[in-house]
Each structure stands twice: as C-alpha cells, then as structure tokens.
Design a protein that fits this description.
The protein is α+β, with helices and mostly antiparallel strands. The chain is built from 17 helices and 21 strands.
Length: 545
C-alpha cells in the first residue's frame, strides 16, 4: 500500500495492500538472479555426458529426462523473469526442436555478464544495445562458418548428434536411419510438415525393435470381432459422419396403435442403416475409418460384407490417413465414390504390448508415415520419444535450409572469436557489452567440458588455440581433447544456433530493460521475507506494499 501525503495530511492509496514492488537495481538484480538460477538448473544436462533430472509432480508422476524444455515445462516456475526464459526454450522447441538447453544457458550467461557491467555503472540500455549489435554480428559470423550439406550421410550424423546422450546411445544409429527415412518420405517440394510424422510409443521391447511404417498406425481396434483382422490390397474409405440413424432435430412423438406398425418402424431403421453400409460396399471399400460412431447394426452388416471398420478415429489421424493413402475424407455418405478411396498394401490389426492397434502399411509414396518407438519401460520409451522428436526437428531444419555448422562448441568459439575482433572496432561503452556477449557464448564449450569431467579452463584455452588453425575444431568429450568436428561426425543445423543465439539475446535484453517490478497480491502471497533487500521509494517515501 503506497501512502502519499495530500492536503491536510490526507493519505492517497495507489496500490492495494499486499502488492510487492522492486525498483531500479533491486529489480534488475532479482531478475538476473532468477535467470542465472534457471540456467544453472538445466546446465548439467548439456551434451553427451550431461546428467538427467527426475521431476515428480503433485500427483507423484515421474519424468526422467535431460531435455531442457521438458524440464522447464514440468517445473512449477513462479518467478516472472524465469518464466520469460522458459518461453525462450519453448520457442526453440517449436522452431527447431533441439538446442533448448543451449538457448537457456546462453541467456543465463548473458544476464550474468550484464550484472558485471551494471556494477561498473554502465546503463542497462547501453548493455541492451551492445547485446543487440553483438547478436546481429553473431548471425553474420554464423553464416560465414556454416557450410552447405543436406546429403543423406550428413543428415544421419545430424540426427545422431541430436540424440547423443539422451538415453538412445546404444541404438542411435538405427534410430537416426528411421528418422532420416521418415523426414525424406514426407518432404514435399523442399517443405516438411513434421505433423505428418506420427510417433507411436509402446513399452515392453528393446529400442532396436523400433520401426518406420510406410503408412499410419491407429491406436484403435476393429469395432466387431466378425470383421477380418487383415485386409490385403486395401481400398480405404475415410468418413467424417456417423453411421447411425440420426435423431430428429425437433422433439417428435410417434404414436403406434398396432404391433405391425412397430415392426415396420424397426425394419425401416434397419433398412436405412443397411442402405448406408451398401453405399460403402458399392463404392468398393473394404476398410472403413470413421471419425464418429458406428451403430451396432451397422457393425453387423459391415462384418457380413467383409469390411474392416474402425470408429472414433482422431481428426489428426484422419488427416494423416488421407496423406498416406491418398484418400479423401467424405462428410456425406451419399457423396462417397470410388475416386474418394485410398489404397494400402495391407491393413491389419496387431497386438503390441497388450494393446490392439491398426497398421495401415505398404502405401504408395505416402506423405504421412509413423515411427513406432519401442523401449523397455514407460519412462525409457518417453525419453526415446523426446530424443526422436529432437532428431526429426534438426533433420527437417537441415533439409529445408541446407546449412550446417560444427558441433562440440566449435560454432560458439568461432562466433566468440569473431565478436571479440568486432568489439575492438566499436567505440563507446557498447564495446564492453559486445565483448561480454562473446564471453557468454563460451559457456557452451565450457559446460560441455564440465559435464564430461574435464577441466573447463584448459579445454577453453585449447579450443581457442585450435581455432587459430581451423574454425571446425570442437571438444571431443569422449576422448577429452580437441578435434575436427566434421571429421568426427558431430554436426548441427545452422538454424539451431541461429535461433538459440537470437532468442537468448532478445530475452536477456528484455529482462535488462526492466527497472520496476510491481507484483500484485494475486500473483502469490507475499510475506515479510519477500520484501528483504527491497529499496524504498525515491525521496524517502515509504516502500509500496
């Protein structure tokens, strides 16, 4: 509650009781600390030797992962500045699928370096401007050090790099082949819609049992046991309406005076349903996927006609089936023709880990495919799924852009080196901010070394010296030395680095420009301890509470 002296000593209330307010350096110090703490939380997960985190929610459900964005999503984060860094990770995940931890630790390090500059009485706006200049220059340097490559061998290496250290270590090569095969299959004129790659996960087997299905797997079973469990040379109908007698839209009452009328009424309903089934059979379909319900009687008639039917299929699965089989989704059954049907080599029901699933396989040049991911337990298969999603993202980014950079901290060291040279050409205090940005980028190789149990300072010195000869030299965490990353097959898409640096810089800028945090009582229950170290208002006014 803010109290201001008015005429006659009258008090003026500006903010409600229970409101917290942090001003100037206090606000900046608090926000920077939140960013640093968040970055430290995910820092130990970076790289092939990164450790995992176990997250337990209020219901006792467990998630074991070293995927940065998953950790941050599962954590119950309250601090507003920390939430801004979580957005950095989410954006990175949405745009490229990998590099979420990198983006967050760079943002955290930028805030840490900014704190030193603020302590030197450099204005936050100057720091933000310097960071913006450095981010623009970093993108230019990134374009120079990236090379053109989108051949299959490079894509395999990129997929394996993305999956290294994510619980898929022993089977990363076969998984990488599946991922590259899936991405290349759904590629359409250089564009890749990752939604067309469906991931079905099932535990109870080894990672090696994972497979790429040239078609779609539907996590459903046929609606009637009398239907065939396998249909070869399938002609598939996709229906968006229910196969049942529609209820009247207005309340209707039917008066029956004779039992024969009742019988006629029932027969009429049966004939309507039989007519619907006949339309499906007459169109030549022997497999039906229905987005809505299928009446019990219709199931009987479909089974008699030898048609395999599946009901209540998700809309997203219907779209994938259309892409895979070249079938059209029909809304009105009367409009169904042979031209609307799709084709597949075989449609069969298989039991996977105790659950019946429908496999639509052998499609001709399908533009939607399914990756069946297997693992020994539920937690293992969940982590494999996250690794595969990251790999799909990076392979898709490489196919679309055709540009790659060296991994193992090589790109960050090269950019940092270029930024330090650029800083010497700038006059004014922004020079210090650009130099700080360059040093912040070195946190990536430094963290890779720390997580691998190596001496981070020695590793950094060796890397800087090696970059005098080649910009592709990075840290080999397995051998503990510096080596050419392209020869070692440690490659990443340029888009991952581009997005990570850009979003980290923008988030750091935004946080640095905040000089006043006003938190209402609705955003938590502030106690006296929350107010510790909080500066009073200018001019000797009492603090706002």
């Amino acid at each position: 509650m803010a109290q201001l002296g008015g005429q006659g000593g009258q008090q003026v209330l500006i903010l409600p009781e229970g409101t917290n307010r942090f001003l100037g350096r206090d606000a900046q110090r608090m926000n920077i600390l939140a960013g640093k703490v968040l970055a430290e939380t995910v820092r130990t997960t970076l790289g092939p030797k990164g450790m995992d985190k176990m997250l337990v929610d209020s219901l006792g459900d467990i998630v074991v992962t070293n995927d940065g964005v998953t950790i941050l999503k599962e954590m119950d984060i309250e601090h507003p500045a920390a939430k801004m860094l979580v957005e950095v990770a989410k954006t990175q995940e949405d745009e490229v699928g990998d590099g979420t931890t990198t983006a967050v630790i760079i943002a955290g390090e930028l805030l840490k370096k900014a704190e030193g500059l603020l302590d030197m009485d450099i204005h936050p706006t100057i720091v933000a401007m310097g960071y913006r200049q450095a981010a623009e220059k970093a993108q230019e340097i990134l374009n120079v050090i990236s090379i053109d490559a989108d051949d299959r061998d490079t894509l395999l290496k990129i997929a394996m790099t993305a999956m290294t250290g994510k619980g898929t270590e022993k089977a990363r090569e076969p998984l990488a082949r599946l991922v590259v095969g899936a991405v290349k299959q759904v590629e359409d004129e250089g564009e890749i819609d990752q939604d067309h790659i469906k991931i079905e996960k099932k535990d109870g087997a080894t990672i090696d049992d994972s497979a790429l299905v040239q078609g779609v797997i539907i996590d459903k079973e046929r609606v009637h046991p009398g239907m065939p469990s396998k249909v070869d040379d399938a002609r598939i109908a996709l229906l968006n309406s229910a196969i049942e007698v529609k209820e009247t839209e207005v309340d209707a009452e039917i008066r029956i005076t004779d039992p024969s009328q009742m019988q006629a009424f029932i027969e009429q309903e049966e004939n309507m349903i039989k007519g619907m089934v006949d339309k499906i059979v007459d169109a030549g379909a022997n497999v039906l996927f229905c987005q809505k319900g299928i009446d019990d009687l219709a199931q009987h008639y479909l089974a008699k006609a030898g048609v395999m039917a599946v009901r209540r299929v998700k809309k997203s699965d219907m779209e994938k089936l259309g892409k895979a089989t070249q079938a059209s989704v029909v809304t009105n059954l009367d409009d169904l023709t042979v031209d609307d049907l799709g084709e597949a080599g075989v449609v069969r029901e298989r039991k996977i880990s105790g659950d019946e699933m429908i496999f639509v396989e052998g499609c001709k040049d399908p533009k939607a495919v399914t990756l069946l991911v297997r693992g020994s337990t539920e937690h293992v298969v969940d982590e494999i799924e996250r690794a595969v999603e990251d790999a799909i993202g990076v392979v898709a980014a490489t196919v679309e852009d055709g540009k790659v950079v060296a991994g193992g901290g090589a790109a960050e060291i090269a950019i940092a080196r270029g930024l330090k040279e650029y800083a010497d050409t700038i006059s004014g205090r922004e020079q210090l901010a650009v130099a700080a940005f360059a040093e912040a980028l070195e946190v990536v190789p430094k963290t890779l070394a720390e997580n691998a149990g190596l001496d981070s300072i020695d590793s950094l010195v060796d890397l800087r010296a090696a970059h005098e000869k080649s910009i592709y030299m990075g840290l080999d965490v397995f051998k503990g030395g510096v080596t050419d990353m392209f020869k070692s097959g440690v490659i990443e898409p340029r888009r991952v680095k581009k997005q990570a640096i850009q979003s980290a810089a923008e988030a750091a800028e935004m946080i640095l420009r905040i000089d006043d945090v006003i938190a209402s009582s609705g955003s938590g229950k502030p106690g006296p301890e929350d107010m510790e170290g909080m500066g009073g208002m200018p001019g000797g006014m009492p603090p706002m509470m």
